[in-house]
Design goal:
The chain is mainly beta. Helix content is about 5%, strand content about 30%. It is built from five helices and 37 strands. β32 and β33 (about 470-480) form a beta hairpin. It starts with a helix and ends with a helix.
């Protein structure tokens, strides 16, 4: 045998598995060294090549799993070249499963497996072998490690992690749409043969679905699968090893597939015409009925919005979309009247709110129906011509005077007669009454504005044929004032004065009140009821100031002095006026416009002591207010039936505009008379001399 043939056979023997009698040979060689086999290889040029060969170490056994024989399964044989066959050597086995799963014949070196081995539990075992001298117990070979590898057989079927899968896919999906992927695992060795190579197939669910053999992806197989026709599908998938060939093991799983909804169906009204009825007395907002369009889709794909798009009742009725029930609720928008109109027609539209653009070709996604609403008559209560009434009347009218009339009618077609009455809870004093036939309201007792300025009444209108049908309306009566109350002093005055009071000294301020309420405000005119030369009053319209009369002669004597009493009501006063003939003593332009005083002129009725040069100011224009005031007072006196039949003197006061001197009264002053300095009054001219004397007394006032 040549070297080449020897090498070839040697390589074949090494590469092929040996199940019959594997053997490990031990040789006494140094551990670090490797056995080298040399061979001469002739070259083409005649030279001989020396090639080196590696030392081969037998360190692996192979064992089939799932052995079913009755005897121990033979694994292999350990043998040392030091073994002479005389039993002097002893073989020892240690490592994974040594002594339990694997046993060795210490004389022959044969290794056996004591039980059936499952590769899926453990794929290989690592052990160590050693040969020792039985007598000296010394090793004759170094300890060697080897592996027993378990050969796989196809003893495991593919399994799915889930027995039942749940998946979904939208309806109307195109063919080939991925639904779900299922994956099976095989416990066999994927690197040895086809035991773990799995192929998928569909056993149930065709022709609707298919599965990819290599990946297990389930896909749709039919176009336009409609959920409304069928929603649930059950698909059974098989996974088979050995590449799906005959003899392979298989496992199955079930996949429940649901078609999810898409908006591929428009809403539809079940009827072309819907009839509803409503009472004319139904208030605004009343729901009178509902309409509903059906949609084969579900969820938001079935949501519908309702609206009124046409008809003669669009301003009388409204429609509200009820989201939960997906209904259109028709409500009253304005008050109804059977006598005005008895039938209305509406055109109602229902439209999907979520439309899928992919399915526009299946539209339009809306529908319409006609709704006819009949108005039913009811016996309605009377209706007043106004929502409320306001009457104004003077307090001095006679009892029985009509102050106003309320009107009401029966809105029904029968037009029943109306009876009016007063709600006595609103007129406990029975001051008013009403004519039951025509609604005229009149007084039954005298009125007094000072007791009650307003009367809030309630008038009832009821049908004579059906008194239960009644309506109420508010009637407000305002009592207008007339001057029927005399002024009264605000308090009782008990006035004291010192006997040595200085003339012109203020001794009492008097005010009055009046229950009446004239439009221009309360204005009073004060005078002394009895003539008393010791006192005089100063009229300030509302309040009056009582002064001590002047008892001493003035230095300025009037040129014209008449003490003749024509009548008792004509008295002589030491004032600044000169009577009707006096046109220069006091300029009424000061009242018209105190801001503008005419040129000062000397008086003709007194002897001037010094010549006073007045300041020049523009002439005040004529004031219509003052002129009208005087004319009105004169007219009132001429028409007053209680006025005496002889000439009398009447005193009036008119405030006019603000005075350039501001207030001359001490009523608003926080100080006493003695604290004020009134010397400046003497600088204002002769017209203010009287005030200067009254208030400019200095210490004499305090003494008094």
């Amino acid at each position: 045998m040549t070297v080449y043939q020897f090498l070839l056979l040697f390589l074949l023997w090494v590469c092929l598995p040996h199940f019959s009698s594997p053997e490990i040979m031990f040789r006494r060689t140094p551990v670090p060294q490797k056995r080298i086999l040399g061979a001469r290889v002739p070259r083409s040029d005649g030279k001989i090549l020396h090639r080196q060969k590696r030392g081969w170490m037998w360190n692996q056994f192979f064992l089939l799993e799932e052995y079913t024989g009755s005897d121990y399964q033979y694994v292999g044989k350990l043998h040392s070249d030091q073994d002479k066959g005389d039993g002097s050597l002893k073989y020892i086995l240690s490592g994974d499963g040594a002594g339990t799963l694997f046993i060795i014949d210490e004389k022959t070196g044969d290794i056996h497996a004591t039980r059936r081995i499952d590769r899926e539990e453990k794929a290989f075992y690592t052990l160590r072998a050693q040969a020792i001298n039985r007598r000296t117990l010394r090793p004759v070979e170094p300890e060697s490690e080897f592996v027993i590898k378990i050969h796989d057989i196809n003893d495991n079927e593919p399994t799915f992690p889930e027995e039942i899968y749940t998946a979904s896919v939208p309806e109307m999906s195109v063919v080939g749409t991925s639904v779900v992927q299922v994956t099976a695992t095989d416990a066999d060795d994927p690197s040895y043969g086809n035991s773990a190579r799995v192929i998928y197939s569909i056993l149930q669910g065709q022709p609707y679905f298919s599965v990819e053999p290599e990946t297990g992806i389930i896909r749709t197989a039919l176009p336009n699968m409609n959920r409304e026709n069928r929603e649930q599908y059950q698909v059974v998938i098989q996974a088979k090893d050995m590449g799906g060939q005959m003899g392979g093991l298989s496992g199955t799983t079930t996949v429940n597939i649901t078609l999810t909804d898409v908006n591929d169906n428009p809403p539809r009204f079940p009827q072309n015409t819907i009839h509803l009825r409503v009472l004319e007395s139904s208030p605004v907002g009343t729901a009178i009925g509902s309409v509903k369009a059906t949609d084969a889709d579900t969820g938001k794909n079935a949501e519908v919005e309702y609206r009124i798009i046409d008809g003669d009742g669009t301003d009388m009725f409204d429609i509200i979309t009820e989201k939960d029930m997906q209904e259109g609720i028709i409500t009253v928008k304005k008050p109804l009247d059977y006598e005005s109109r008895r039938l209305y027609t509406l055109k109602v539209e229902a439209e999907n709110t979520h439309v899928d653009p992919r399915f526009y070709y299946l539209g339009p996604f809306k529908d319409t129906t006609i709704v006819k609403i009949s108005i039913e008559d009811v016996d309605e209560p009377p209706v007043f011509s106004r929502s409320s009434y306001l009457f104004e009347v003077h307090e001095d009218i006679e009892v029985g005077t009509i102050i106003g009339t309320v009107m009401a009618r029966d809105p029904d077609s029968t037009s029943s007669p109306i009876r009016f009455s007063l709600d006595r809870h609103t007129d406990l004093d029975r001051i008013f009454n009403i004519h039951s036939g025509n609604g005229s309201l009149y007084t039954s007792k005298p009125l007094d504005r000072e007791l009650s300025q307003w009367h809030n009444l309630t008038v009832i209108a009821a049908e004579i044929n059906n008194p239960k049908e009644m309506t109420r309306v508010a009637v407000f009566v305002r009592i207008l004032d007339v001057n029927d109350n005399a002024p009264q002093f605000a308090v009782f005055y008990d006035t004291f004065v010192c006997e040595n009071a200085r003339p012109g000294q203020l001794i009492q301020t008097i005010s009055a009140v009046d229950k009446d309420d004239p439009l221009g405000g309360q204005k009073f005119f004060f005078s002394l009821a009895a003539v008393n030369p010791n006192f005089t009053v100063q009229d300030n319209e509302v309040i009056v100031v009582l002064f001590a009369a002047l008892k001493r002669q003035r230095k300025k004597e009037p040129l014209i002095l008449s003490k003749e009493d024509i009548r008792d009501n004509i008295v002589s006063y030491n004032d600044e006026g000169g009577g009707e003939e006096d046109t220069q003593a006091f300029d009424i332009g000061t009242l018209r416009n105190p801001a503008a005083i005419e040129e000062k002129k000397l008086r003709r009725d007194i002897i001037p002591e010094t010549l006073f040069i007045p300041r020049r100011t523009p002439t005040a224009p004529d004031n219509a207010d003052v002129r009208d005031f005087i004319n009105e007072r004169l007219k009132e006196h001429d028409l007053d039936p209680t006025a005496p039949p002889y000439d009398s003197l009447a005193t009036y006061a008119y405030e006019g505009n603000d005075s350039i001197a501001e207030s001359l009264s001490s009523l608003e002053s926080g100080t006493t008379d003695g604290d004020q300095n009134y010397d400046y009054l003497r600088e204002w001219g002769p017209r203010f001399n009287k005030l200067a004397e009254m208030y400019g007394g200095g210490e004499s006032d305090k003494d008094a």
